[in-house]
């Protein structure tokens, strides 16, 4: 494998050098810098794809997941670079990626008229509904379909979906993207787009869990139909692991599940805040590429987290992709804090603050009751029950009149023989 890596790197380096020698180097510093950075990234990706550590997934090929691991490293390094720039330089640096970036975003009204049926518009009274049916509707659906395949739990998906809508309500005074109509929040997002995506995802998970995983070599299949079916199934899992999070089984698992939900919500919020602070339009291709990136690395990270929680003796440390996803999410948040601290420090409305304080108190109260008070109460009841049984046995012995336990001699003899053995 190492020899194969060196061979591929040698061929790639020679090819890049050959291309450089064939053409005359242009006297454009910006162009040469971009070209050199891209070539360096390609060499690193080539090295990582062939030499990086394999993850938990092996389909369609382990090299595919090694590629996304290396992309995670490159993306984290890019975020660190942006973090150490000034606000103006960081925004203008985006022009090197796309010349149309680096321009302030126009203000848009996302809330507006919230009437489902607008009688004032005789031409099209349902124009508010049609305006919301844009390209983001299928994006919501496919996004939650893929998130369901990653999380593999209906309750966790629904909690994250509903919690994000509450976050949009709470933060709409900071970002105009979060200002939506009530029916857009709960009917179009939670029920139609998110709910339908979660439902289809759970049906797919059910099919994958019932599927028979018996693989056969491609060239051992006699028919062309069988070969095509085998090629398609190459993009399905090699085997299936059903996620059973069981958050109420122990305090450790409860805190882990809460941490997963928190990181998920933070990554969702980073999507909107990064667009705002780096002046990227919502429909820009970089936004879509970031979502595609998180879909691929998020699935591996969730599997590594579940393996670490389910069998900590075998998986003694958290997987590398999970650590990278956590680092990327934290770095994105730091960029948002540095580039626009004023927006983040806008105080929440008083009633919003009250609702969040009440929710946090309820969660902490339930946690204390479930993992501390309830266990103490059950332990006290068990001790009390054992004392009552002991007292009952003692009273029963005294009622025989000899003051000794009425255990048959045969049982005493068996116990003595066991002790001798």
UniProtKB/TrEMBL annotation:
Compartments it resides in: Endoplasmic reticulum membrane
Principal cellular location given in the protein's record: endoplasmic reticulum
GO term, biological process aspect, one: phosphatidylserine biosynthetic process
GO terms assigned for molecular function: L-serine-phosphatidylethanolamine phosphatidyltransferase activity
Positions of transmembrane segments: 6-23, 35-52, 64-84, 154-171, 183-202, 254-273, 285-302, 322-339, 351-372
Region (Disordered) location: 392-421
Keywords: Endoplasmic reticulum, Lipid biosynthesis, Lipid metabolism, Membrane, Phospholipid biosynthesis, Phospholipid metabolism, Transferase, Transmembrane, Transmembrane helix
A Pfam cross-reference name: PSS
Metabolic or biological pathway, per its Swiss-Prot or TrEMBL entry: Lipid metabolism; Phospholipid metabolism; phosphatidylserine biosynthesis
EC number(s) reported in the record: 2.7.8.29
A single Gene Ontology CC term: endoplasmic reticulum membrane
InterPro entries: PSS
Membrane topology label: Multi-pass membrane protein
Annotated catalysed reactions: 1-octadecanoyl-2-(4Z,7Z,10Z,13Z,16Z,19Z-docosahexaenoyl)-sn-glycero-3-phosphoethanolamine + L-serine = 1-octadecanoyl-2-(4Z,7Z,10Z,13Z,16Z,19Z-docosahexaenoyl)-sn-glycero-3-phosphoserine + ethanolamine; 1-(1Z-octadecenyl)-2-(9Z-octadecenoyl)-sn-glycero-3-phosphoethanolamine + L-serine = 1-(1Z-octadecenyl)-2-(9Z-octadecenoyl)-sn-glycero-3-phospho-L-serine + ethanolamine; 1-octadecanoyl-2-(9Z-octadecenoyl)-sn-glycero-3-phosphoethanolamine + L-serine = 1-octadecanoyl-2-(9Z-octadecenoyl)-sn-glycero-3-phospho-L-serine + ethanolamine; a 1,2-diacyl-sn-glycero-3-phosphoethanolamine + L-serine = a 1,2-diacyl-sn-glycero-3-phospho-L-serine + ethanolamine
Family label: Belongs to the phosphatidyl serine synthase family.
Function as written in the Swiss-Prot or TrEMBL entry: Catalyzes a base-exchange reaction in which the polar head group of phosphatidylethanolamine (PE) is replaced by L-serine.
PANTHER family: PHOSPHATIDYLINOSITOL SYNTHASE, PHOSPHATIDYLSERINE SYNTHASE 2
Name of the molecule in the record: Phosphatidylserine synthase
Encoding gene (name): Ptdss1_1
């Amino acid at each position: 494998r190492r020899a194969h890596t060196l061979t591929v790197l040698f061929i790639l380096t020679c090819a890049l050098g050959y291309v450089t020698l064939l053409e005359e180097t242009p006297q454009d510093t910006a162009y040469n810098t971009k070209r050199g950075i891209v070539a360096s990234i390609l060499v690193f990706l080539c090295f990582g794809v062939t030499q990086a550590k394999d993850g938990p997934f092996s389909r369609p090929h382990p090299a595919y997941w090694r590629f996304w691991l290396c992309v995670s490293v490159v993306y984290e390094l890019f975020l660190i670079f942006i973090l150490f720039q000034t606000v103006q330089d960081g925004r203008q640096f985006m022009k090197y990626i796309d010349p149309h970036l680096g321009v302030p975003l126009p203000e848009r009204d996302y809330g507006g008229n919230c009437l489902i049926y607008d009688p004032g518009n005789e031409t099209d009274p349902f124009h508010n509904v049609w305006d919301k049916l844009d390209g983001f509707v299928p994006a919501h659906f496919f996004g939650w379909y893929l998130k369901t395949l990653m999380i593999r739990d209906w309750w966790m998906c629904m909690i994250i979906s509903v919690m994000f809508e509450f976050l949009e309500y709470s933060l709409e005074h900071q970002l105009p993207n979060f200002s939506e109509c009530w029916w857009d929040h709960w009917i179009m997002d939670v029920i139609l787009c998110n709910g339908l995506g979660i439902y289809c995802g759970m049906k797919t998970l059910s099919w994958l869990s019932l599927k028979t995983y018996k693989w056969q070599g491609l060239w051992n299949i006699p028919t062309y139909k069988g070969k095509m079916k085998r090629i398609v199934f190459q993009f399905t899992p090699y085997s299936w692991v059903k996620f059973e999070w069981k958050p109420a089984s122990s305090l450790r698992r409860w805190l882990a599940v809460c941490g997963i939900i928190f990181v998920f919500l933070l990554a969702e919020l980073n999507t909107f805040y990064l667009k705002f602070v780096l002046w990227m339009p919502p429909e820009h291709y970089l936004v879509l590429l970031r979502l595609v990136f998180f879909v691929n690395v998020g699935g591996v990270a969730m599997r590594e987290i579940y393996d670490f929680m389910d069998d900590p003796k075998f998986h003694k440390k958290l997987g590398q992709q999970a650590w990278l996803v956590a680092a990327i999410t934290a770095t994105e948040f730091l960029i948002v804090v540095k580039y626009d601290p004023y927006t983040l420090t806008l105080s929440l409305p008083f009633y919003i603050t009250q609702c969040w304080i009440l929710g946090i108190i309820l969660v902490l109260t339930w946690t204390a009751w479930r993992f501390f008070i309830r266990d103490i109460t059950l332990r006290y009841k068990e001790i009390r029950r054992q004392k009552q049984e002991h007292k009952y046995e003692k009273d029963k012995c005294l009622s025989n009149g000899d003051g000794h336990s009425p255990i048959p001699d045969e049982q005493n003899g068996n116990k003595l023989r066991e002790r001798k053995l």
